[in-house]
What we know:
Low-confidence stretches: none
Order of helices and strands: HHEHEHEHHHHHHEEH
Distance between the termini: 54 Å
Number of helices: 11
CATH topology of the largest domain: Beta-carbonic Anhydrase, Chain A
Structural class: alpha/beta
Shape: globular
Number of strands: 5
Amino acid sequence: MCQDCQCNSAIEQLLKNNQAWVKEVNAADPHFFENLSHQQTPEYLWIGCSDSRVPANELVKMDPGTIFVHRNIGNLVNSSDMNVLSVIQYAVEVLKVKHIIINGHYGCGGVIASIQDDNPSLIDHWVRPIRKYYQRMQKELDALPYEDKVNRLCEINVVEQVRNICHIPAVRNAWKKAQPLAIHGFIYNIKDGRLKNLNFSIADNDAAEKAVLREVSPSAS
Length: 221
């Protein structure tokens, strides 16, 4: 057992916060937790960044049980990442979600790391896909002021992850069976708390093929 007083105090605070939250929820709805324990029927799968300032349910003011959530650095969907692939398969085939949302955020540390050269090795490996997006559009991006460059790359990264999901067998098979499923790209501005729809949504295999071949791009918002 940890004997550090500060450590114990920090953990105790989490437990106290939980007790206070339970009390508040029960006061508002005495049956909330009982009802929640009997069902998990989320309509949305949210794939977001691990950044502690970007919590899924709070951003869209939705209760527990309404959004199935996966988060990682840079909100990436890699074909080699069994974690995100398993989450997507479970969400699509078992939970039957109707929407998959890729949610990035401006000023993303993972995106910033992708244009730097001094990252720890594992982080550098993880953000390599974003670096490829940067290299592909480097001339255009480097012409922008630094903050604008980072934020534009954050948007590009979201769009590329929407494209990546189009390759996943669970998603393709759902569309083959005419299962309602749409993929969307959102981005969050930490400075004002607002979500932005990047207007890049894919809802069937035909649209997916065009997206992968880059025959369709985000429409102007």
